[in-house]
Design brief:
By secondary structure, the protein is of the alpha/beta class. It is about 40% helix and about 10% strand. It folds into two domains: about 240 residues, TIM Barrel (Alpha-Beta Barrel); about 100 residues, no CATH class. It has an eight-stranded parallel β-sheet. Strands 7-11-10 form a three-stranded antiparallel β-sheet, with no helix packed on it.
Length: about 375
């Protein structure tokens, strides 16, 4: 049964998980308003995830999605890590700080986290989604035995086939327009950089699973277009950053409404994996530091977060991970429930325009 019908959604909308930005309050507000709210668990441990799921259930009786990172186990490389810290050292010095003595792998992949799996099996959230890849078959099977609806991000037909062959329930077609990290299974492989609508149409025709369109969709008209191309729903992330329930700080919110919103940049420098962000001081480093061989994700992210902390301590907010998609200039600041209702109304108007009733039907 497709996602919308199974979870009795009032509109075919998923609010993207956005680890570090989406909160249980934001996700629950979306679910209560008739969409599918999501929280990102990839940046926390099993105890933190348990608390977030508990808060979700305290705030909403409706379905919600929890998202896990399934990145390749990072390989420590002291030489690469030291070289990257050396490159960033002048920036730390500019803010009166020293770079970390060493870098850590700050996020665990679900594939390496049996404690997270045990927690998921115990609490059985209604929907679990994966980003950066797929967990081992035994993990997938265990989650399925708990009746959990499973979906994963794909940036290509090849990744979509892997998701189908793994027995998941749906595919999130992540176009190049999307904000945040590219969901590529292997960031070292060629990226065909397919746009959301081309990828959605391709997967709707070939993937053999329900497809959720993600990337650059900001309003009801975009949702309607995705449905026309064969998607069963649309996933919107950047559209919800400006909601008061999100965890975005004041600088992030201000940047979202500034000139940088018109010039998003795909960069690996912040975290070690390609990700789309608002143009800021950190993304500008691509002009001079792009030749570096970065540490693996998320080891490189440890350096990025340390630099952002040093800069913020001196009043500079341009080194944050201000993730956003290419539709960022269309962002609106309003409570999440109001935004969901606005999207629902826009979707209805767009669908009416796409499918006007004939004169006979009108009579």
């Amino acid at each position: 049964m497709p996602l919308v019908e199974r979870f009795q959604l009032d509109l075919p909308l998923i609010q993207a998980p956005m680890a570090g930005v989406s909160t249980p309050l934001l996700a629950a507000s979306v679910s209560n308003a008739g969409g599918l709210g999501s929280i990102g668990l990839g940046a926390t441990d099993a105890d933190g995830a348990r608390k977030m799921i508990g808060e979700m259930r305290d705030r909403t009786p409706r379905a919600f999605n929890v998202n896990l990172f399934v990145h390749r186990t990072p390989r420590p490389d002291p030489v690469r890590e030291a070289a990257w810290l050396e490159t960033l050292s002048p920036l730390f010095a500019r803010f009166g700080a020293k770079p970390p003595a060493a870098l850590r792998s700050i996020y665990k992949s679900l594939a390496d986290d049996p404690g997270m799996l045990a927690m998921l099996l115990e609490l059985a959230p209604p929907v679990v989604s994966f980003h950066f890849g797929l967990p081992p078959a035994d993990m997938i099977s265990a989650l399925q035995t708990r009746g959990i609806f499973l979906m994963a991000s794909a940036t290509s037909a090849e990744e979509a086939r892997a998701i189908r062959n793994a027995g998941l329930d749906a595919i999130i077609a992540q176009g190049i327009e999307a904000g945040g990290h590219r969901g590529m299974f292997d960031p070292a492989s060629r990226d065909d950089a397919l746009g959301t609508f081309a990828l959605t149409r391709l997967l709707a025709r070939e993937a053999g699973l329900p497809v959720i369109a993600a990337g650059g969709i900001m309003d009801g008209g975009g949702i309607a277009a995705a449905l026309q191309l064969g998607a069963v729903a649309a996933q919107l992330g950047t559209a919800f950053i400006g909601c008061p329930e999100s965890a975005a700080d004041d600088a992030y919110r201000a940047a979202l409404t500034g000139p940088g919103a018109y010039h998003t940049v795909l960069t690996s420098l912040i975290s070690g994996r390609p990700a789309r962000a608002l143009a800021n001081r950190f993304t500008a480093l691509d002009n001079g530091a792009g030749g570096n061989v970065l540490p693996d994700y998320p080891i490189a992210y440890d350096a990025g977060k340390a630099l952002n902390s040093a800069a913020k301590a001196r009043g500079e907010y341009g080194f944050g991970a201000q993730w956003a998609g290419q539709g960022a200039p269309l962002a609106r600041s309003m409570p999440a429930a109001d935004l969901v209702q606005t999207l629902k109304q826009e979707l209805a108007r767009s669908q009416s325009a796409l499918h006007p009733r004939s004169a006979d039907e009108a009579e």
